[in-house]
Design a protein that fits this description.
The protein is an alpha+beta fold and about 160 residues long. It has helices spanning about 50-70, 85-100, 125-150, and strands at about 1-5, 15, 20-30, 35-45, 75, 80, 105-110, 115-120. Helices cover about 40% and strands about 30% of the residues. Strands 1-4-3-2 form a four-stranded antiparallel sheet, covered by helices on one side. A two-stranded antiparallel ribbon has the order 5-6. A two-stranded antiparallel sheet has the order 7-8. About 15% of the residues are buried.
Length: about 160
């Protein structure tokens, strides 16, 4: 599977070599004003079944959602790695701070990248709430966007005429 540069109006499914029974399936088509486009493409030997096409496309969208959740959140101009472990740690620190009325604060988290770490200390419950709320919104928005893209999959778009 790879991103390909081509022309707009490309077929979503196409037999590219009838003699070898080679097929290509395309999705995430991004058309440009100049008539060009980029899209994801996967090759198959033999015409892929509708279930196979859907599995490939939804699997790719799932990978995109996971990657965006993991590394797409920026807080105060700092990238924040939202691994499952970090999400758990942020939730635990937030819940404990809320339950104790802020008595467990300050709390410090490491943001940034491996090459450039940034440590952010949250002194007040309001600061921590702002961070945690924005992180959760990022996750929810990313999931909703992924659901929308997967729900837009229409098997009829991949019928061969």
């Amino acid at each position: 599977m790879r991103r390909v540069e081509g022309t707009s109006g490309i077929r979503l499914i196409e037999c590219v070599s009838p003699a070898r029974n080679r097929w290509r399936v395309r999705w995430d088509v991004r058309e440009r004003e100049d008539g060009s486009a980029s899209y994801m493409e996967e090759g198959f030997i033999g015409r892929p079944a509708p279930e196979t096409i859907k599995a490939v496309i939804t699997g790719w969208y799932n990978e995109q959602v996971d990657e965006t959740i993991l590394s797409g959140f920026v807080y105060e101009d700092m990238p924040v790695w939202l691994s499952s472990e970090n999400q758990f740690n942020y939730k635990a620190a937030y819940d404990l701070a809320v339950q104790t009325g802020g008595a467990t604060l300050p709390v410090t988290f490491k943001f940034g990248t491996d090459e450039q770490s940034v440590y952010r200390t949250f002194e007040t419950l309001e600061e921590l709430t702002d961070f945690y709320t924005k992180a959760m919104k990022h996750i929810q928005d990313t999931l909703a966007d992924g659901w929308k893209k997967k729900d837009a999959f229409n098997p009829e778009d991949y019928q061969v005429e």
